[in-house]
Amino acid sequence: xxxxxxxxxxxxxxxxxxxxxxxxxxxxxxxxxxxxxxxxxxxxxxxxxxxxxxxxxxxxxxxxxxxxxxxxxxxxxxxxxxxxxxxxxxxxxxxxxxxxxxxxxxxxxxxxxxxxxxxxxxxxxxx
Length: 127
Fold this sequence. Notes:
Number of domains: 1
Number of strands: 0
CATH superfamily: Nucleotidyltransferases  domain 2
Order of helices and strands: HHHHH
Low-confidence stretches: none
Radius of gyration: 14 Å
CATH architecture: Up-down Bundle
Strand content: under 5%
CATH class: Mainly Alpha
Largest sheet: none
Structural class: mainly alpha
CATH topology: Four Helix Bundle (Hemerythrin (Met), subunit A)
Shape: globular
Helix content: over 70%
């Protein structure tokens, strides 16, 4: 069985990998896949925050719902993770339902959102 620290490190690494992947997709102008990879990065970063609460799910949308329900008022630095996650879910849903008609600026917003959340989570765990 994994320790809490191992779970945290594993999910942080997953989030970092998805951010790298989203960056590659963005550079290749594959905006829809960039949005989806960024959303997965957000999912893994939020899962890190739930490790201490023994709450988990493999469903990205469900994780955001769980996080909103249990940690709604949890600010990390100047970033309210739940607000960013909600906006990101809207962009992700648009990407899924738009037949790939995603613009560069939407992919950039998602990548910035994912990076902001990961940075806040890493800052939180570095204390």
